[in-house]
Hints:
Blueprint lengths: L1 H21 L4 H4 L2 H7 L4 E2 L8 E5 L6 H4 L11 E2 L7 E6 L2 E6 L5 E5 L3 E2 L1 E13 L10 E9 L11 E8 L3 E7 L1 E11 L5 E5 L5 E4 L2 E2 L12 E8 L2 E6 L2 E11 L10 E8 L2 E12 L5 H10 L8
Antiparallel strand pairs: 1-20, 2-3, 2-6, 4-5, 5-20, 6-19, 7-19, 8-16, 8-20, 9-10, 9-19, 10-11, 11-15, 12-13, 12-14, 12-18, 16-17, 17-18
Amino acid sequence: MRIIALISLLFFVGISVRLVMSFLPDKESSLPQKDHFAENFAWRDLFSQDLAAWNTWLGKPYQPLSLLGSKNEKLSEQLGLNYDPLGVFTLVEEDGKKTLRITGQVSGGLITKEEFDDYHFSVKYRWGEKIWPNTLGQDRKDSGILIHCFGPPGGVYRYWMKSVEYQIRDTHAGDLWVLDTLADAPVERRKSEKGTFFYHYHIDSPLRMITECAMSQVKPKTSNTWNQADIYTKGNSAVYLINGRVSMVLTNIRKLHEDGGAPLHKGLIQLQSAGAEIFFQEAQIRPLKKFPTKFQELIDQITTETTASH
């Protein structure tokens, strides 16, 4: 009898516990979208739903309408948001994978609809053949990955957003450009043959405030070969890599004084169209709880100086 009574008691307790638990909110579903992302450390494919996760922004076309093969009068003006009549941004298939083709025919960008902070972004890229004459006076292959984007689309040069750029060129990659923002990086100040000064990244150099650009010393692979670009960012620090090699370490990323001067640690991501054909593949992102130890050591090294030089 005692055994039967014990079994009955355990059965009753089990039902009671399940009944109580059924009224409690589900932990996973009750988390807000951002926290759910932060707890999920798996890679997220940003091309998985075609381009549904992205907006487009295009400025004014470089060339006259007659050369663009279109009679659309709107093409003489800034094209703006989600209007891409020339097919500057398209998904194609290459090696059995979804691949973003950016023709570069008009400057602008493909912009995520979602903001991100504390993440590892990874993407492969390779150059196409076409270089378009453009209003920026460039005749070489140029593109970039813009992070921490904020403000209106086309807020910088009427093409891009205020942001921090991982610059991509055919001869070098992983450079730092600040687009109406500021950041600090360890750089050497050098003088060009024309007498102008420019900065080159070197981890043992003094920490300086970057108001325009700092050049990487890592060379990418040849133009028609896939290169791997990685960006680790946490708080207002970031580490750039090209093909597994560190090309830039930056910290104290922030807005300009006129934008409040606050630390800049989150924003949209923009893939740049800038006058040259380029292909992107395997664009992925995952949350970053903390920097890998080797990168944190680099950040700790450069932040031992409390004030960056000009």
